[in-house]
Amino acid sequence: MEGLCLTLQPFPSSSIQRRLSAFNLHRLTRSSFTPLRAQKSGITEGSDSALDSKVTEQEVTMYQNEVVESQGIKIRRRPPTGPPLHYVGPFEFRLQNEGNTPRNILEEIVWNKDKEVAQMKERKPLYSLKKALENVPPARDFIGALRDANQRTGLPGLIAEVKKASPSRGILREDFNPVEIAQAYEKGGAACLSVLTDEKYFKGSFENLQAIREAGVKCPLLMKEFIVEAWQIYYGRSKGADAILLIASVLPDLDIKYMIKICKILGMATLVEVHDEREMDRVLAIEGVELIGINNRNLETFEVDIDNTKKLLEGERGELIRQKDILVVGESGLFTPEDIAFVQEAGVKAVLVGESLIKQSDPGKAISTLFGRDVSE
Ligand SMILES: O=C(O)c1ccccc1NCC(=O)[C@H](O)[C@H](O)COP(=O)(O)O
């Protein structure tokens, strides 16, 4: 039986879609909808006129898969649940299916995050987070800080990353004091900071984010997290985040739209990250996107190529970005003033830099080396 993969029953997508259309659409995408949740909220058979029979887990999964496939998203939100339970006499068993192993590191991170968030939500439900937000100071203007820095220096505004480790590079800095590093970055001329909050793969934490905010650092803070659920946005805001990252290879368009709306309500900025042309085109078609990050690192293979920024900003895409006045951030693999000049020439007005700064003994001074001159005041 091991390794046997069952084919799912064919099911016309329009039929699933019609039966599910009574919900807010965002519920149908991977981040927010579970049949269990529907049942908990009383959305069950007969409870809604447009929902003519109970929506099964399999149907929802099929619909989600269709959405994800149609948008070219390769990262699966969680391991396939496998074929349905089988009964032989009194015994119940599930056939093991193929594909229960993550296909790459990004998928592994996402699967882990999905479980982690489910546990965190149990401890801090959304209503308690919303209550906590009443006492949190308002979010700072992340995009404004980048534009100001760009105008002031004539160089891309810097988002300096507080990053202890990464899956591709291992430990980047042993003597890691997040607050001291953040203060050094601010002194060195960073416009904004990016703080890794993932513990398992990056050795980051929400405590780091909160400590940096509470230490009086004025730079707006990006919560560098793998967001799979809207709940994480509220949690990040409660810890002092001013901006969040949405990764287009992980999130379907509907989730991105929904999360952007939540951020607008919370006064936060969204950095929507793309790596290839298809993701860029999807994101450019989403209303309300103001900040796009082009990651030069392929998060599935770790390959880094700063030409990627240039490639994605050429021709009509670059033109559309200028028309829409979208601010573009060049991300990853930037080490020298020549690298900065290269991505600036390609059209970016901001850069996100981790490794090349964090590895230096004085990460603040490293900013001048990276830009080829002092960018603090
Ligand atoms: O950095 C990684 O190894 C990594 C692996 C899997 C998912 C994301 C990852 N990094 C996130 C980033 O893209 C970078 O932290 C960020 O752009 C800064 O990059 P760098 O200047 O090259 O440290």
From TrEMBL:
**Origin superkingdom:** Eukaryota
Catalyzed reactions per annotation: 1-(2-carboxyphenylamino)-1-deoxy-D-ribulose 5-phosphate + H(+) = (1S,2R)-1-C-(indol-3-yl)glycerol 3-phosphate + CO2 + H2O
Q: Where is the Indole-3-glycerol phosphate synthase domain?
A: 106-370
| Molecular function per GO | indole-3-glycerol-phosphate synthase activity
Its GO biological process annotations read: L-tryptophan biosynthetic process
Enumerate the UniProt keywords alphabetically. Answer: Amino-acid biosynthesis, Aromatic amino acid biosynthesis, Decarboxylase, Lyase, Tryptophan biosynthesis
Q: Does the keyword Magnesium apply?
A: no
Q: What is its EC number?
A: 4.1.1.48
* Pfam families linked: IGPS
Q: In which pathway does it act?
A: Amino-acid biosynthesis; L-tryptophan biosynthesis; L-tryptophan from chorismate: step 4/5
Q: Which HAMAP family match?
A: IGPS_B
Protein name as it appears in the record: indole-3-glycerol-phosphate synthase
Organism in which the protein naturally occurs = Cardamine amara subsp. amara
Q: What is the lineage of its organism?
A: Eukaryota, Viridiplantae, Streptophyta, Embryophyta, Tracheophyta
